[in-house]
Amino acid sequence: MTTYIFRRLLTVIPTLLGVLLAVFLMVRLAPGDPAQLLAGEFATPEALAEIRKRFGLDQAWHVQLGLYLANVVQGDLGESVRTRKPVSYELATYFPNTLRLTLGAMLVALLVGIPAGIIAALRPGTIFDLLAMLGALIGVSMPVFWFGLMAILIFAVGLGWFPVAGTGSLWHLVLPAITLSTGTTAILARMTRSAMLEVLSQDYIRTARAKGLPGRVVVFKHALRNALIPVVTVAGLQFGTLLEGAVITETVFAWPGIGQLLVGSILARDYPVVQGAVLLIAVAFILINLVVDLLYGAIDPRIRYE
C-alpha cells in the first residue's frame, strides 16, 4: 500500500502543474486590468506602472509563470492585490468555513441519500420507491440558488427558525448545508438503489436468505457492504464537487468561504488569490480521491494495492 500511495502522490505533480498553467492563463485572458482596479479610475500612469511593477504584472507571461511556480515550490503563494495580505493567510481564513459547510452537506447527503436508496431497493415499485426516486429527480433538477432562496424565504424569513445568512453558530449551518446537499443526496439515493438492486439479485443473497439469516443481517452485512463500492466512489467525487460547487451556496447565504473569496477575487482580477484558491481546491480533490481508493480495501478485503 505504501508503494501505491507513493505512486499516486507522484501523479499529483503533473496534475497540479496542469491546473496551475490553465488557471494562470485563463485569469490573464479575462478582460480588465488589476492595476487599474486597484489604483482607481483616475490613477496616473506613474501610479499604474508602480503597481504593475510591485506585483510583477509588467513582465511577460512566461516570466510571471516561471516566478510563480518557483515561489509555489517554496510554499509562497504570493500576496493579494486587494488586501496586500499573503494569499496563504486569506486561504487559511476562508477555507475552514467552506470545509465546514462541505462536511455538513456531505453528512446530510449520506444520512438521507443512502437510507432512501436502501428502502427504495428493498421495496421496488412501491410508494416508497416512487417517492424516493421522485425526490431524487427533484433534487437533481432543482437549481441550488433557487432552493437556497426558497429556504431563506420560508424557514428564515417566514418561520424564523434559522438565521438568514452569515456564520457563527450551528443554526447558521443548517440551511446552507441542506441547500448544498440536494444534488448529492439525490445522486447517492439513485446510486445506492441501483447498487442494492444488483446485489440483492445475486445467488449468495438468496443462499443467505435460504439459510434463515435475519433480514437485517442479509441487507446490512451481506448486501449493503458489497453495494458500497460504487456508492463510496460517487460519494468521494461528490465531496470534491461540493467543495467546488459551494460558490453559489456561499453567495446566496453570505457564507464567508472560498466561494465568496473566489468571486470577489475574480471580479477584482486578484490573480494570486484566484490561483491559490484553485490550487487548494485541486489539492483537496486529489487527496479525497486517494482516500476513497484506500477505503476500497477496508470495504472489500479482496482488493489489493500493488
UniProtKB/TrEMBL annotation:
Q: Highest taxon of the source?
A: Bacteria
Give UniProt keywords alphabetically: Cell membrane, Membrane, Transmembrane, Transmembrane helix, Transport
* A Gene Ontology cellular-component term: plasma membrane
The way this protein sits in the membrane is described as: Multi-pass membrane protein
Coiled-coil region(s): none
ABC transmembrane type-1 domain residues: 95-296
The Gene Ontology biological process annotation of the record reads:
transmembrane transport
TM spans (from-to): 101-122, 134-164, 170-189, 277-299
Q: What is its main location?
A: membrane
PROSITE patterns for the chain: ABC_TM1
- Give the subcellular location: Cell membrane
InterPro entries named among the record's database cross-references: BPD_transp_1_N, MetI-like, MetI-like_sf
**Its family?**
Belongs to the binding-protein-dependent transport system permease family.
| Name used for this protein in its record | Glutathione transport system permease protein GsiC
Q: Give the organism the record lists.
A: Meiothermus luteus
